Amino acid sequence: MTECTVDGEPLPFVPGQTLAAALVASGRIAWRTTRIGRRPRGVFCGIGVCFDCLVTVDGRSGQRACLVRARAGMTVTTGREDGDE
After folding, report:
1. If 0-12 CB within 10 Å is exposed, 13-18 middle and 19+ buried, where does residue 80 land?
2. 20 to 30 A Cα–Cα from 67, which one of 14, 25, 55, 81?
3. In the chain, what are the domain boundaries?
4. pLDDT in tens, the chain (85 residues)
């Protein structure tokens, strides 16, 4: 398995796997919260239609984790620590 970094921690993934799939496979089903009510969000539609799975990838915010393929060495931050993306 290969790894990327999510919120400072290594995240293993299978080549070709999306960030959302790798996060869910690692047991993480929510990685951001809503602005109103701070409700947890993760992958919802899985096809890039909604915006529940937003993450920041290598400094680019607003990336949909269900559409971004994991790459070795990429740095991902979620909305878990600073609220929303």
Report:
1. middle
2. 81
3. 2-75
4. 799 999 999 999 999 999 999 999 999 999 999 889 999 999 999 999 999 999 999 999 999 999 999 999 999 999 854 444 4
**0.85 surpassed by pTM:** yes
Q: Residue 70 carries which DSSP code?
A: P
**Residue 11: partners with Cβ closer than 8 Å, 6 or more residues away:** 3, 4, 5, 22, 23, 26, 70, 76
Output the six-digit token pair for 11.
């995240």
Burial of 36 (0-12, 13-18, 19+ CB in 10 A): exposed
> In the structure encoding, which two tokens stand for residue 46, read together?
């899985």
Please tell me the chain's helix, strand, coil percentages from 3-state DSSP, rounded to the nearest 5. 10, 35, 60
Nearest-CA neighbor of 19 among 62, 57, 51, 52? 57
